[in-house]
Amino acid sequence: MRGLLIAVCGLDGSGKTTQIKMLEEWFVKNNLSVLLTRQPTDYYRQDNRVRQYLDSGECPDMQAIALLAAADRRWHMKTCVEPSINEGTNIITDRYLYSSLAYFKVRGLEPEYIKAINGDIRTPDVTVFLDLEPEITLKRVKNRDGKLTKYEERDPDMFRNIRAAFKQVLPNEALILDATQKPTDIHQLIIKEVENKLKLIEEVELYETR
Ligand SMILES: Nc1ncnc2c1ncn2[C@@H]1O[C@H](COP(=O)(O)OP(=O)(O)OP(=O)(O)O)[C@@H](O)[C@H]1O
Ligand SMILES: [Mg+2]
Questions:
Q1: What's the first-to-final CA gap in the chain, in angstroms?
Q2: Distance 44 CA to ligand 1 centre (A)
Q3: Residues forming a β-bridge with 57
Q4: Is 3 in the pocket of ligand 1 (CB under 6 A)?
Q5: Smaller CB count within 10 Å for the chain: N or C?
Q6: What is the CATH code for 5-208?
Q7: For ligand 1, is residue 141 a contact (CB within 6 Å)?
Q8: Where, by residue number, does ATP bind (predicted)?
Q9: Which ligand 1 atom is at minimum distance from the Cα of 145?
Q10: pLDDT tens track of the chain, all 210 residues?
């Protein structure tokens, strides 16, 4: 059976890493192979041009940054996500295309443009959006890290806009979860959806081999 692609999305500090770790444990406990990954990858995050923008807000060409993000994602899909899914490994990705669509929309680039440069990449089997007010996510990041480090994190309005943009660009079937709930309650909602999708894919593959 092919692996599932699960995308966990949300603002910085919304609880993605917390949920991803719990979900990984669930897969391991159920003897299902699982791989954690993230988009963008470290190639993008460590690029000096990207760092300059994230750290200081300085950016001579936002389209160039979007192209770097798209190239990073396309490479990651071809070299990591697609092969793993095909060999039966379930993939959990920390952020996906929808982060690019939402963040770059607020940075002034149309989602249609971002979609075009990212190419024809697969819709995840499960898309989770951890929905939370920026006031709370920023507080959580501050409590976790002791400070806010990204330039954009200094402006809660920016995050209000990114949250609204997410809701416009997420796939229709995305699981939009109230992220003020307890981590264990959120986890239960996610595994219910994952179990349904695992069953569905198994049935489809059984039908196709008949
Ligand atoms: N449901 C929750 N309720 C209260 N606090 C939470 C919840 N989920 C996570 N947290 C706490 O909020 C902080 C941020 O969580 P986490 O690191 O999982 O977020 P994140 O979305 O991965 O952030 P980033 O985008 O910066 O990687 C952590 O200190 C975590 O313990
Ligand atoms: Mg995280």
A1: 14
A2: 23
A3: none
A4: no
A5: C
A6: 3.40.50.300
A7: yes
A8: 10-17
A9: 29
A10: 999 999 999 999 999 999 999 999 999 999 999 999 999 999 999 999 999 999 999 999 999 999 999 999 999 999 999 999 999 999 999 999 999 999 999 999 999 999 999 999 999 999 999 999 999 998 998 899 988 777 777 778 889 999 999 999 999 999 999 999 999 999 999 999 999 999 999 999 999 988
Structure tokens at 67: 């192209």
The token duo for 44 is 């993008």
- DSSP-assigned beta bridge partners for residue 35: 91
- Nearest one of 140, 177, 141, 135 to 160, comparing CA atoms: 135
- CB contact burial 96-122 (16+ within 10 A = b; e otherwise): bbbbbbbbbbbbebebeebbebbeebe
- Which residue positions form the known binding site? 10-17
Domain map (residue ranges) of the chain? 5-208
Tokens at residue 21, please? 């770790």
